[in-house]
Amino acid sequence: MPKPKAIVIGAGIAGIASAIRFAVKGYTVDVFEANAKPGGKLTEISMNGFRFDAGPSLFTMPQYVDELFKLAGKKPEDYFEYIKLKEICRYFYEDGLRLNASTDLNKFAQQIEEKTDSTTTEIERFLNKSKTIYEVTHRVFLERSLHKLKSYLHWDTLKSIFRFGQIDAFRTQAKANQSFFKDDRIAQLFNRYATYNGSNPYQAPATLNVIPHFEYHFGAFLPKNGMYGIVTALVKLAEELGVKFHYNQKVEEIIHTNGNKPKISGIKVNDKTHFADAVISNLDIWFTYKNLLKQIPQPQKLLNQERSSSALIFYWGMDGNYSDLGLHNIFFTADYHKEFNSIWKDKTIANDPTVYINITAKHIRGDAPLDSENWFVMINVPANNNQNWDLLIKEARVNIIKKISRILNRNIEKDIISEQILDPRSIESKTGSYQGALYGNSSNNQFSAFLRHSNFSSKVKNLYFCGGSVHPGGGIPLALLSAKIIDDEIDAVVH
User: Fold this and answer.
1) Over the stretch 454-472, which tens digit does the pLDDT of each residue have?
2) In a designed cystine with 199, which of 31, 38, 122, 204 is the match (CB 3.0 to 4.6 A)?
3) CA 257 to CA 124: how far, in whole Å?
4) What is the pTM of this model?
5) How far is CA 420 from CA 50, 316, 475, in A?
6) Is the dihedral of CA 110, 112, 115, 121 positive or negative?
7) H or E stretch at 222
């Protein structure tokens, strides 16, 4: 009896994870990817001797990657190695304050107490709250479907429902953090975690304060071959399991039967039909419906929700070394509220944006030539709504260079010897993210978790959805969990 066949649309991290999980269950799996290589947003670029991780730059919750190798009966360390960082991030403020967020919490809290008006007690109280939110939410909101009745019939789900008040869903993250910290600069430090899923801390619920727990409890990590090493290791595993990847193959349509109970038939690529028993779309849910599922009713209310923020990224090859900087660096704006108003209300870029710099060459020497560094320089920007991006990019570049030069007291512009730019328009064209929104919908209200699209279709049997634009959300850990949720819905093939 032939094996059932699954087709995955898109070789992003969630699509690769889904392919592995289906292969482990006994399916024949084919992955169709529109680009020339796998990874989606988690890709890399090289220029003039510099290598950059082009998308996500922070690695947390590595157990979700390791789990995929263990499911296949493999040792993760045979495919994929990473180090636990001793320092999470370096923070720079306009007033001269500098903080190094050590993974040693006592050391970090003591530094905050010595340099600011906040105390070690405040840090401890905040991180205990972050831990509580994680304990209440991770089983229910992150690891299970919110769209199946059976998810609510578990005892731990009922316990979480009784503890719902503890997740701080009814005040904004900024309001909560203002109550936690006497020093506004420390509140700002923890407000920034809203940007991890493309949201606004002045609108998003304080439930997002769960995110610091990922870093300060579980830790922050760096793959030894860079973030793209996650992709290459998982693709190698998938191929060993028999998964076939088809690159430069853009899917044109998801095919299904008609009638009262539509069922998946397969996909169409270059006018050729590929039959399948199950289809998993890793494409942004907006494009999945608008381009691939034109024959079924569109969930307009869901598709028309507010999009997450996007990013403007400069990849700079830098001539010289900067000892002030680490792997992860944040240069804060003096007016955080104004910056988010610019993004969310005015749909533009503030003239003093918060700047993030990632420099993997600090740990991976081969990522830049000798006495040079590879700077991934990013600011948060609105999703694409036909703004004049060429002008905005030109102005932002000037402001970013001025800001970094001012704070470091060093003219950085003369050190830029190579440059590439990624903006919301190219994010959409390269990764299939509608309007360049990095995380699908925003999380700017307390019901956002329930408003994301489910991981399965209620209209077409054996049609599934994974990736950052559906439940449970964006970022590497949640994208991997979307594949895990689908896995829980699929029966293993009986041989």
Assistant:
1) 899 989 999 999 999 998 9
2) 204
3) 56
4) 0.94
5) 11, 7, 23
6) negative
7) strand 221-223
Distance CA 331, CA 89 (A): 11
Do β-strands 264-269 and 310-319 pair in parallel, antiparallel, or remain unpaired?
Answer: unpaired
Of 3, 18, 454, 479, the closest CA to residue 235 belongs to 18
| Enclosing H/E stretch for 99 | strand 98-102
d(CA 284, CA 280): 12
**Please, what is the end-to-end C-alpha distance for the chain in angstroms?**
8
| Other CB atoms within 10 Å distance of the CB of residue 297 | 8
Q: What is the 3-state secondary structure (H, E, C) of 319-382?
A: ECCCCCCCCEEEECCCCHHHHHHHHHCCCCCCCCCCEEEECHHHCCHHHCCCCEEEEEEEEEEC
* Residue among 285, 282, 279, 265 at smallest CA distance from 30: 279
Q: What is the pLDDT of residues 150-183, one digit of tens each?
A: 554 554 554 555 455 677 888 999 999 999 999 9
Report whether 42 contacts 56 (CB < 8 A). Answer: yes
- Which residues lie below 8 Å from residue 80, measured CB to CB, with a gap of 6+? 65, 66, 69, 223, 229, 230, 233, 234
Cβ neighbours of residue 437 closer than 8 Å, sequence gap 6 or more: 198, 307, 308, 309, 310, 383, 424
Q: Measured between alpha carbons, how far is 97 from 113 in angstroms, rounded to an integer?
A: 13
Average pLDDT over residues 260-268: 93
Q: Are 373 and 318 in contact (CB under 8 A)?
A: yes
Handedness of CA 124, 129, 130, 136 (dihedral sign): positive
- Answer yes or no: are the C-beta atoms of 441 and 202 closer than 8 Å: no
Half-sphere exposure of 238 (CA within 13 A, CB side): 29
Distance CA(455)–CA(466), nearest Å, equals: 6
Segment 363-375, tens digit of pLDDT:
999 999 999 999 9
Is 409 exposed, middle or buried, given 0-12, 13-18 or 19+ CB atoms closer than 10 A? exposed
In the numeric block, which tokens belong to residue 247? 């690159």
* CA 55 – CA 77 distance, rounded (Å): 24
Strand duo 355-358 + 328-331: pairing:
antiparallel
Of 17, 10, 18, 133, give the one whose Cα is nearest residue 65.
17
> Domain spanning 5-42+224-305+445-489: which CATH class is it, in words?
alpha beta
At 229, list the tokens: 């090493």
Q: What are the sequence ranges of the domains in the chain?
A: 5-42+224-305+445-489, 109-218
Q: Which residue in the block uniquely carries the two structure tokens 């975690």? A: 193
| Strand blocks (E) in 263-338 | 264-269, 272-275, 278-281, 310-319, 328-331
Look up residue 27 and give its DSSP letter. -
* Tally of residues, the chain: 495
